[in-house]
Request: fold
Amino acid sequence: MQYRAYGKTGLRASTLGFGAMRLPAREDGTCDYDRAVPMLQRAIELGVNYIDSAWGYINGTSEVAVGKAIKPYERAKLILSTKIPINDLYGPEWRRRLEVQLQRFDSPYIDVMHMHNLHWQVFQEHGLGENGCLKAARQAQAEGLIRHLAFSSHDTPENVIRLIETGEFDGVLLQYNFLDRRMEEPIRRAHEKSLGVVVMGPVGGGRLSMWDPQALRDLIPESVVSAPDLAIRWVLSNPNVTVALSGMNTLEMIEQNASSASREQPFTPQEQEMVNRLLAKLTEFANLYCTGCGYCMPCPNGVDIPGNFLLMNYYRVYGLREYATRQYALLKQGKELWLQGTRIAGKDASACVQCGTCEPKCPQNIPIIEQLEEVERVLGA
Ligand SMILES: NC(=O)c1ccc[n+]([C@@H]2O[C@H](COP(=O)([O-])OP(=O)(O)OC[C@H]3O[C@@H](n4cnc5c(N)ncnc54)[C@H](OP(=O)(O)O)[C@@H]3O)[C@@H](O)[C@H]2O)c1
Ligand code: SF4
Ligand code: SF4
Reply:
């Protein structure tokens, strides 16, 4: 395992972190401790020292599982991270939750406490002020109950940078992988400001594990053994990243990801060049199709044109057919989707009545009607 400095805190975190959101659960919705605890302990034995949970994961039992798993180990060698969402509470309730969390973990302190899924506006309304959560967090820090304060966010990159620049936080937890690079600039800024940078979704929340890179084998370094291996090494090849936090739920995933994170150099300079070429190729390929600019919108019939094309790109560019088909079926059922930080909330391609309003507005001159027909034919079959 490799270790990197978590900002200026003095902590050294393992480059692979354990995201305890996807631990095995029982039918009653609580964590299956008999399966989860050995998984967490296997990761610790492989050198993972950064373990991340949250107030709400697995109805609160993820934190209990982590607490049970860390019992036999020296507490000071582990970095316990968790989160409290602050969007519907103020300081006193934040403090009550912290006390519950300390009991769940059965630990006298938490190393990194996050404001969970923080938005700039929520920080103004619930973080700041006399009754705000920030004051309660500083008090808990003074009492030694939490060591460092961080935040996780899916807000816009601009707002994430504003949160970083408040100077109130020691670390960030952001989504980042080679399909979704929206947070690259906030990650750079966070590192520049000496914050610890933890990445969630390095394997695209599981999407990238379905990608078959064999199709592009001659563009992939020989040492890459699988898509998750490439995904994790790619995230760690960004020197601004401290930890790739993966939500592993089998022993095989833990072993494999630990091995990916154990390379002193994620890629050799030659491999890095190859991977850069691969990504450039994928981007070039993706740009032949819809770029998601949205100029063609709105469709008077409610079709989410870029959203449908984004799904098609998962198939055409990345070969993720099964994933794209499943998501398209959800869109047909009227479900809202979030992909690569983009909300897809309109109708599927079959709702196009071929009125032609959109086509003249497309700077890529995409034959939208024809391509929507193709989306329905390929993904709707
Ligand atoms: N703060 C927030 O708002 C927030 C939001 C999301 C996540 N998080 C945190 O970040 C953590 C990481 O995010 P994530 O769980 O989305 O990370 P991820 O590593 O991108 O996705 C985990 C999934 O990827 C697949 N996977 C990973 N390694 C694999 C391997 N070696 N072989 C095959 N498949 C593999 C598995 O999918 P399958 O199970 O489908 O096979 C696994 O469940 C979470 O656990 C959570 O702690 C925080
Ligand atoms: S052609 Fe189809 S997608 Fe384009 S505006 Fe008309 S209904 Fe919407
Ligand atoms: S205008 Fe063209 S490139 Fe832009 S979102 Fe619409 S179809 Fe895609």
